[in-house]
Amino acid sequence: MIELKDDELVFEFPEVHEEAVCGIDFHRTLRIPDDNSEYPLPPGLGCFPMAHVEDHSSRLPSSWAERGGVLLPMYQAEALWLNFESGSGFRGGSYPFAVKIAAGKINAVTGDAWSNDLVKEPQDYIVVPDQPWLDGFSVGKGLIRQFIAMPLGQGYTAEEQITGAAEHGGIQVIVYPMKRECYEAMREDSLPDIAFSLCQSYEESSAPDSMGLAPGGLMRQDIYEDEYGFDVWDTGNSSRCFVHILNSAQWTAATGGPTPGRQPASADYAKAGLPWFEYYDDKLEAMDGSKKLAGLDSIAAKAIKLGDKVLGDNAPVDPEEVVKLGPASLKISDGNW
Question: What is the number of H-type helices and E-type strands within the chain?
Answer without folding.
Answer: 7, 19
